[in-house]
Amino acid sequence: MNPIIGIAVLLSVLQMSQGQKVTSLTACLVDQNLRLDCRHENNSLLTIQHEFSLTREKKKHVLAGTLGVPEHAYRSRTSLKSQRNIKVLTLANFTHKDEGIYTCELQVSGQSPPLISNQNVSVLRDKLVKCDGISLLVQNTSWLLLLLISLSLFQAMDFISL
Ligand SMILES: *[C@@H]1O[C@H](CO)[C@@H](O)[C@H](O)[C@H]1NC(C)=O
Ligand SMILES: *[C@@H]1O[C@H](CO)[C@@H](O)[C@H](O)[C@H]1NC(C)=O
Ligand SMILES: *[C@@H]1O[C@H](CO)[C@@H](O)[C@H](O)[C@H]1NC(C)=O
Ligand SMILES: *[C@@H]1O[C@H](CO)[C@@H](O)[C@H](O)[C@H]1NC(C)=O
């Protein structure tokens, strides 16, 4: 195999094993509700656990997700929407009492040590922008599809060079 092609394949494989990173976490306001957009990579091959939490006065409160148990007080106020590369958490009736550091965390299970990736955003009621104009349009080019296409391309090239 051509060494350059070998390196490209190796990079693709590395990309695969690391493809569950949280890339960004943003906060904005819809009416009186807080919306948190957690964008992440997704190669969709492994099981991923997720968690939204709020750290306030050094105390962590789990809001939603599959990692920790969401606190009862928040359970009725949160709703989660999920697409391939984004999780959107809505916290109803946001007030000053909900200010703090919000965290979105992903954890790939079945690996030791587990692969953990997170992002934080500091949320203050008076600094929050309205969500208008912040598009929910998801960048959803399928990594896997691109990978498969490039892999078969490499194979074809390899075949020709034989
Ligand atoms: C938000 O507050 C309104 C008015 O106080 C109330 O009617 C509504 O049930 C609350 N929503 C949630 C999800 O707690
Ligand atoms: C990754 O994408 C697949 C669908 O392609 C979806 O079923 C899975 O829930 C996604 N993973 C996360 C963590 O959202
Ligand atoms: C987010 O905050 C947590 C707890 O304070 C910290 O462990 C983590 O490294 C932070 N993540 C980033 C991406 O800064
Ligand atoms: C990509 O996003 C568009 C619009 O948000 C949606 O219609 C389409 O089904 C998505 N494609 C995939 C593969 O998720």
From TrEMBL:
GO biological process terms, semicolon-separated: angiogenesis; cell-cell signaling; heterotypic cell-cell adhesion; integrin-mediated signaling pathway; negative regulation of neuron projection regeneration; negative regulation of T cell receptor signaling pathway; positive regulation of cellular extravasation; positive regulation of focal adhesion assembly
Function of the molecule: May play a role in cell-cell or cell-ligand interactions during synaptogenesis and other events in the brain.
Gene3D superfamilies tied to this protein: Immunoglobulins
Signal peptide segment: 1-19
Protein name: Thy-1 membrane glycoprotein
Membrane topology recorded in Swiss-Prot or TrEMBL: Lipid-anchor; GPI-anchor
InterPro entries: Ig-like_dom, Ig-like_dom_sf, Ig-like_fold, Ig_V-set, Immunoglobulin_dom, THY1
Places the protein is found: Cell membrane
One Gene Ontology CC term in the entry: myelin sheath
One Pfam family here: ig
Keywords: Cell membrane, Disulfide bond, Glycoprotein, GPI-anchor, Immunoglobulin domain, Lipoprotein, Membrane, Pyrrolidone carboxylic acid, Signal
Domain of life (superkingdom): Eukaryota
An example molecular function term from Gene Ontology annotations: integrin binding
Domain Ig-like: 3-122
Glycoprotein is among the record's keywords: yes
